[in-house]
Design goal:
The protein has helices at residues 15-26, 46-55, 76-80, 85-93, 109-123, 143-153, 181-188, 232-238, 250-260, 286-303, 306-332, 342-361, 371-381; strands at 5-11, 34-39, 70-75, 98-103, 128-133, 136-138, 157-165, 175-176, 207-208, 218-219, 222-223, 227-231, 264-275, 365-366, 369-370. The strands form three sheets. Strands 1, 2, 3, 4, 5, 6, 7, 10, 12 and 13 form a ten-stranded mixed beta sheet that branches. The protein is of the alpha/beta class and 382 residues long. It folds into two domains: 5-188 and 205-275, Spore Coat Polysaccharide Biosynthesis Protein SpsA, Chain A; 305-381. The protein has 13 helices and 15 strands. The chain starts with a strand and ends with a helix. Helix 10 (286-303) packs parallel to helix 12.
């Protein structure tokens, strides 16, 4: 009997991508035990569009209308309890053309939204859970089978991810190395670019576009979460995604916790995935950079001691102060209108976060409020 595989697709105002993703999942030759779409509090008509599609789904390959897809809809509370007896009985009696639609009612972020689906899947006895971005789909039909087969043969593996490509065929970052203080400082003050290239051969980048010459599974720090297969036993061991990370840094945090519990993480070049990247948050948007920056501060605060956190904050404070001072002087000289560009908005946020972090590291209390609370508030409201 094949293992119980649950595929989680998180939707937020992106029903067009979600329907393309759903269609690709329904065409997979490997039996999928549960396909779970989590609508993360969409503000548009995503839910009605998804339900409408299920009643009369077109086949994008042939153009012909197919048989309806059985949809069981749960609210967040019911889903986290494992669904309802009636709903699960209907799913059991259905063929492969079925999925669960969970309406969360609010936007809980990437981690929080997926956690709702994970709780439902675990309550129903899932053995593997695939986090699949709604703007991603398998490049080849046997990719999921390759991932599951590898996990079955490798009991030490807690998670694995595939090789990602943009829709135009260009390779994409597929895995990464855990953040370190040195990598952050190299990003903020890229003096390494002055060094001879041969001196940098041993330096590992934070985000990695795989070498096409790598054809065997590779042990990595963290596979990208756009298509991440996780063993249920590993989740039960290390816990859920940390929903304090609203967006970004969830995978490094999760995988670091797996590493601490001796669960390996792998990159599988055989599992090829097309990923549009940034379906819900445009990859060049100001909000993407700001979410990532906030999550970086949260990650370092969680996993690094206070002295390292102080150096991290100092690096951002110095770099942002320099960038903002240069911008202000150029405004005085009439080179700019004074309206901050997205890049300047990023450095303004970096300055606020780093300044708040310094205040949080002070032992004194000001005005009866702890400085830690003040810093946390700055992170949430920036």
């Amino acid at each position: 009997m094949p293992p119980k595989i649950a595929i989680l697709i998180l939707n937020w105002n992106g029903w067009e991508d979600t329907l393309c993703c759903l269609e690709s999942v329904l065409r997979l030759p490997l039996p999928v035990w549960r396909t779970i779409v989590i609508d993360n509090g969409s503000g548009n008509d995503s839910v009605s569009k998804i339900l409408e599609w299920a009643q009369c789904p077109p086949d994008s390959l042939s153009g012909r209308t197919q048989q309806p897809v059985n949809v069981i809809t749960y609210d967040r509370v019911t889903a986290e309890r494992g669904g309802s007896a009636e709903g699960e009985e209907s799913l059991a009696d259905s063929g492969p053309r079925k999925f669960v639609l969970i309406k969360t009612g609010s936007n809980f972020g990437f981690a929080g939204g997926n956690n709702i689906g994970i709780r439902y899947a675990l309550a129903q006895g899932a053995e593997y859970i695939l986090l699949l971005n709604n703007d991603a789909y398998f490049r080849s039909p046997d990719a999921l089978a390759a991932m599951v087969g590898f996990m079955e043969r490798t009991p030490s593996a807690g998670a694995c991810g595939g090789r990602y490509f943009y829709p135009n065929g260009e390779p994409q970052q597929s895995y990464g190395n855990f953040p370190t203080l040195l990598r952050i400082l190299a990003y903020l003050f890229p003096l390494y670019k002055l060094l001879p290239p041969q001196w940098l051969k041993g330096f590992r980048r934070s985000n990695v576009i795989p070498d096409e010459r790598v054809t065997e599974p590779l042990l990595v720090d963290w596979p990208s979460g756009a298509c991440l297969l996780v063993r249920a036993e590993a989740i039960e061991d290390v816990g859920m995604l940390d929903d304090r990370f609203f967006l970004y840094m969830e995978e490094p945090d999760w995988c670091l916790r797996m590493k601490k519990q001796d669960w390996d993480r792998y990159y599988l070049p055989q599992a090829e995935v097309i990923h549009a990247f940034g379906g819900s948050v445009n990859k060049t948007s100001t909000s993407m950079r700001q979410y990532h920056l906030e999550s970086q501060f949260k990650y370092f605060r969680k996993h690094f001691p206070a002295p390292a956190m102080a150096v991290f904050a100092a690096g951002y404070f110095v770099r942002s102060s320099f960038s903002l001072l240069s911008w202000r002087l150029s405004c005085i000289a009439g080179e700019h209108s004074g309206q901050p560009s997205p890049d300047i908005q990023f450095w303004q946020q970096a300055w606020r976060l780093s300044a708040a972090e310094f205040r949080s590291l002070l032992p004194a209390r000001v005005g009866g409020q702890s400085q830690t609370t003040a810093a946390s508030t700055a992170v949430r409201t920036t």
